Amino acid sequence: MGIRQYRSMFILMMFFLFGKNIIQAVERDNDSVKIVRPVVASTYFSVGNNQVYDTYLSINRYSGLDVGIGHERMRVAPFGAGRLAARHLFEVDFSTTRNRPGNGMMITGMFDYSFGLYRIFRLPCKLKLLGGGELSTNVGGIYNLRNSNNPAAAKASVNAGVSGMAVYTWRVSGYPITLRYSMSLPFIGTFFCPGYGQTYYEMFSLGNTKGIVHFGSFHNQFDMSNMFTVDFPVGRSAVRIGYKNRLRSTHQNHLVYKMYTHVFTVGIATEFVTRSQRRKVMSAASSISAFY
Q: Please, which domain of life does this record's source organism belong to (predicted)?
């Protein structure tokens, strides 16, 4: 057996003896360089004006004070190689509105939840664009204090649509100020609407529920929200102030419903790493933020 054969056998033996350990060491090194995906969470309060027009309850327009609270969570998705971000948004709004003569009052309460998945585009000019799809649901109601018959109108919808954001961090003497514009526009879904003159007693006591759930799109439903925020860092968090407007409307069964809300917001935004990632990921790992 020649020298070359002995050399080949030696290399093969060394591979079987130490190759597994080398591979395991490489795998450990790869695990230690996992990407940290911090959560960007914000809670904010809103106050502004709400205008309500619902012909099921009244032919008059109502306008008044709107207050609310919202919570938003954004994070880079665990899939997509850092190019996808997910967002959860919860909002609760409450308003008291009056008609123009001042002799009628409506009370409105709404709960909204949406989940969006976005593709992140990081541009060289420090501008970050996010675009994707969104699933949303809305549940609430309007109560007219003047009506003795049919005093309330329930609202419910489930929709799918498009959503987008533009995020830019502007540095003023080294101090980062983050500007963000976001929009959501559902284009297909379902919503609840009773028939013209149909009472809730008929629907839920007599069981006459035919035709109260409708397919929704631009021909009979519109729901668009726009929001602009500015983040001012304070310590490890940021003060977030902003402005938001939202227009909801449905046209079904000869009934028209419109709600236009515009509010100013103020809250706190914080970026943090979850406990599970702190345990698994070394401090030297790279970090990808969905927002900043």
A: Bacteria
Strand-pair category, 237-252 with 213-216 = unpaired
What is the number of structural domains in the chain?
2
Give the span between the Cα atoms of 140 and 34, in whole angstroms: 43
- Tokens found for residue 136: 């949303």
**Eight-state DSSP code of residue 144:** E
Helix (H) or strand (E) holding 202: helix 200-204
Do residues 128 and 122 touch, judged by C-beta distance below 8 A?
A: yes
d(CA 83, CA 39): 15
Q: Which residue has the tokens 């977030």?
A: 240
Per-residue pLDDT of 202-226, as tens digits, reads: 988 888 888 899 999 999 999 999 9
* Residue range 101-114, pLDDT digits in tens: 999 999 999 999 99
d(CA 107, CA 52): 10
d(CA 83, CA 76): 7
**What are the angstrom distances between the C-alpha of 117 and each of 84, 87, 89, 170?**
7, 7, 12, 25
Strand partners, 182: 165, 227
Which bin fits 165, alpha (ψ -120 to 50), beta or left (φ > 0)? beta
- Dig out the tokens for 288 from the structure: 């990808």
Terminal Cα distance for the chain, rounded: 65
Same domain assignment for residues 41 and 22:
no
User: Which residue do the tokens 């954001």 mark?
Assistant: 165
Residue ranges making up the domain that contains 4: 1-32
